[in-house]
Amino acid sequence: QALRQLLFLVSGTTLNCLLLRKDMCSWSCGIQLRYNLSQLEQWLRAQGLQQSGACEVLEPLVQAAQLLQVKKVTEEDAGALCSLCTLLTPQQVVKILRAYTPAVGLEERVSPGFISSVERRLQDSYREGPGQLLVDTSHIFPVQLPFTASPLHLDELHIPESLNLAFLGRL
Ligand SMILES: *[C@@H]1O[C@H](CO)[C@@H](O)[C@H](O)[C@H]1NC(C)=O
């Protein structure tokens, strides 16, 4: 649970950084981010922590890294991109596409037509509106403590007088 909270903070802060810094929105940054994230995922697996919920909190950032890497030209690309980014809000997806910096000599700028096509598709599937832009990194997950019922029959328990617990009553 501590790791999930910590990685949520790492993931949310990085995603916010990506959303606010144009220089991070590039294909090469996407590759680096994906590689770094896969190292974290591998470490979690090696520690047997894949069920801890820690992998899930990294997932929006994984999708953002993939968004930076996929082709962004045709209508099919727009459809594929939308089915990839299920954990990002429409506002986040559009912001990253607008900020995307093409690799010099290798890529074209993402066309306004492509961006509005993505925007339309996301509006259709995401009914809650554009959603928020930045991740609320102050979010705290509730801590869950496992409850194990006592094997003792408490009503048969005899409390020694020497413990001075006379105020304890039987319910
Ligand atoms: C990836 O991790 C390296 C350190 O291992 C760091 O220098 C680099 O900035 C990270 N890049 C991204 C995009 O997270």
Overview of this protein structure:
With 171 residues, the protein is an all-alpha fold. The chain has 6 helices and no strands. Helix 5 runs antiparallel to helix 6. The chain is elongated. The site of 2-acetamido-2-deoxy-beta-D-glucopyranose has 4 residues, from helix 2.
* Secondary-structure element pattern, one letter each: HHHHHH
Question: How widely separated are the two ends?
Answer: 35 Å
Profile the largest sheet: none
Give me the oligomer status.
single chain
Number of helical stretches of at least 4 residues: 6
The Cα radius of gyration reads 24 Å
**Uncertain spans, ≥5 residues at pLDDT below 50?**
none
Ligand identities: 2-acetamido-2-deoxy-beta-D-glucopyranose
What portion of residues is helical?
Answer: 40-55%
Indicate the proportion of strand residues.
Answer: under 5%
**How many structurally independent domains?**
1
The residue-averaged pLDDT reads: 91
Secondary-structure-derived class: mainly alpha
| Beta strand count | 0
Overall 3D form: elongated
Pfam families: DIL
Signal peptide: 1-17
Domain Dilute: 1-124
Keywords: Signal
Distinctive features:
elongated, binds 2-acetamido-2-deoxy-beta-D-glucopyranose, GTPase binding, 6 helices, 171 residues, mainly alpha, Vascular_dev_regulator
List the helices and strands and how they pair.
Blueprint: H1 2-20, H2 27-46, H3 54-69, H4 75-84, H5 90-99, H6 112-125
Bound molecules: 2-acetamido-2-deoxy-beta-D-glucopyranose.
In short:
By secondary structure, the chain is an all-alpha fold.
